[in-house]
Amino acid sequence: MTEPLTPTIRPPDYLSGGKRTNLRVSEWLPGWWVGFGKDESCQFEGPWYDIVILAAKVLRDPATAIVAPNLYRPDLVLTAEQERNYTEGPSVEWPEPTDD
Known about the structure:
- The chain contains three helices and three strands.
- It is an alpha+beta fold.
């Protein structure tokens, strides 16, 4: 019998980057995660800041080292406010693209 290479490391079942940027393991498809907003019937959406917080939480999770070792970033440090379900990111006015 072959033992798994990393028996104790698994991706998290749930991560939240903010009010409308949540990621959780699927209840009906194994190995699949679902992004959602306020509740699971809402599409994945949110301001860029909240999506960045969610991305940081994914990149520093030990499971990332298994599937993409070059992207694993355990050194990413979030503020205490970012660690919680962050809902008040900086407001940024993105410029409209120009047709050059």
